[in-house]
Specification:
This protein is an alpha/beta fold. The protein has six helices and eight strands, in the order H-E-H-E-H-E-E-H-E-E-E-E-H-H.
Length: 198
Amino acid sequence: MVRPPTPPAAALALALPLALLAGGCEDPGPKLTLVYMSPQGSERVLLEAARFQGGIPVHVDGAPAGWGDADGLSVQLAARFATAQARPDWRIEGAGRPPRGPDGTRIVVSFDPETGFSGVSICQGEEIGGEEIGGEGIGSETAPDPMSFRLVICDGARRAAEALATLPRPAGPETEPFRRLFSEAAAAVVEREQERRR
């Protein structure tokens, strides 16, 4: 028995749900993952840095194209981190690009890190993909979507805490989705030791 051809409207009605199932399941919204937290928490590291270093530097690795230079962006992100913590005594300050190699306690924000790039690499100042950490940002014509960034607290060469965030690529650092996600990441990477043991 020969079946009659499927009418175009019926074929479309079948194809649309299949297409939605195949490509529409991925949530493009902001995501935040706490990748690592030291068993001792991270707050103690920041408290000691504020006391003995005189302040806590925030460095920016790979500032996105069109977001200004690392110096200006690090100042903005330092202010946002300080607001999220509500600890003016910590003296969180923008400090531009990361130093070569491990250098004291610091906060590093790395935008669009390469595959295999982690907070351990950031804190140790390793070369990734043949380029030393602290390179320039990706141009808008080659920038992937969504954007990702790692927010890492380094204690010398040791990683104390790390969060990974992704969101649809925002137009700039002042957009509300980025501001909100960065503030959430800044809150997530600071924990006391007793909070960690619960």
